[in-house]
Design brief:
It is built from 6 helices and 2 strands, in the order E-H-H-E-H-H-H-H. It has one domain: Orthogonal Bundle (Non-ribosomal Peptide Synthetase Peptidyl Carrier Protein, Chain A). It is globular. Strands 1-2 form a two-stranded parallel ribbon. By secondary structure, it is mostly helical.
Length: 111
């Protein structure tokens, strides 16, 4: 363990092909290696290190006050992102179009 400085956390931002889940894991491990780092420094380092605008928004809306709360928010967000990725794996709106088409055809059925 070593003294905690925010630049220790900021030195390794999320890499272009790194999944959000992997980044959170690496960031969390860095946090546990540092002594005496404040929650506000952890939060600031996290926000400036990630590439996901939606997660920055989520963290801003939920305003965590501890590292634990921040990492919980991030892990929950990553789980949701993975679920969306599993459903919409090609990145298009085909899933939405399929749902809309199903709803439209269902509304034309006689009752």
């Amino acid at each position: 363990m070593r003294l905690g400085y925010s630049w220790n956390l900021r030195s390794g931002g999320q890499k272009p092909n790194e999944s959000l889940r992997d980044f959170i894991k690496h960031f969390s491990m860095k946090c546990t290696e540092l002594l005496k780092i404040t929650n506000s420094n952890v939060l600031g380092a996290f926000i400036t290190s990630i590439t996901c605008k939606e997660l920055v928004h989520e963290v801003g809306c939920k305003t965590p006050i501890s590292t634990s709360q921040l990492l919980d928010i991030a892990a929950n967000f990553a789980s949701g992102e993975e679920a969306v990725g599993a459903i919409f794996s090609d990145g298009s709106t085909k899933g939405k179009q399929k749902v809309e088409a199903t709803e439209a055809s269902g509304s034309q059925d006689p009752k």
